[in-house]
Amino acid sequence: VLLAVGCRFADQTTSSFRQGVSFAIPPTQLIHLDIDPGEIGKNYPAAVGLVGDARAVLHQLVEEVRAQASKREYKGSPYFEEIQRAKEDWLRELSPFRDSERVPVTISRFIRELRAFLERDAIVVTSAGHPQAQVLQEFAFYQPRSNVTAAGFSTMGFTLPAAIGAKLAAPERQVVGVVGDGDFMMTMQELATAVQYKVPVVIAVLNNIGWQSIRDLQIAALGPERVLA
């Protein structure tokens, strides 16, 4: 059973809807909660659909569960142990990239160093491409509202203005925008806005000399001899 709260199930978080990669719905039974009835069952069939405000409905669900079931120690359950093994496997798979000494630096190594440097409540902003995908997969977020991203839309140009907005909204927190060079070019003129209004935001530009996500798609669809990005 999977409980999804305010989740659109966009292509990025679902591995482009490939069955059994991120999700297997069905046979997994989906309980889908969203304030917008149009989202329920849109991309995956919902066994149970709940329409309402997330805070209110979750409060009701918790109260109902407490009334009907006693508290259980989940850490010794087979499912919890399976999740821990999957996490360990994932970290082992990342290790050659996170610990790499190669130059230019890998994105995974950059993400590891960034996480070690930032405070736990730091806000990290992303837009599109490899920086967005790898931050979602590899950066550990510890506090609510710490990950600001264009999500499934992967809108290039989002990072810099969104990072400025995040810093204005939370001036007491560290704010870092992680962006590729192609993405950065879309709105890099907004650095002038940050300077004009004295917004101390940090933008890390990962320069891989091109729109590499688009390039990868072109190679897959057309072959390497017809790449334009």
Automatic annotation (TrEMBL):
Pfam families: TPP_enzyme_C, TPP_enzyme_M. PANTHER family: ACETOLACTATE SYNTHASE CATALYTIC SUBUNIT, MITOCHONDRIAL, THIAMINE PYROPHOSPHATE ENZYMES. Residues 1-61 form the Thiamine pyrophosphate enzyme central domain. One of its GO terms (cellular component) is acetolactate synthase complex. This is Thiamine pyrophosphate enzyme TPP-binding domain-containing protein. Belongs to the TPP enzyme family. SUPFAM superfamilies: DHS-like NAD/FAD-binding domain, Thiamin diphosphate-binding fold (THDP-binding). Residues 128-218 form the Thiamine pyrophosphate enzyme TPP-binding domain.
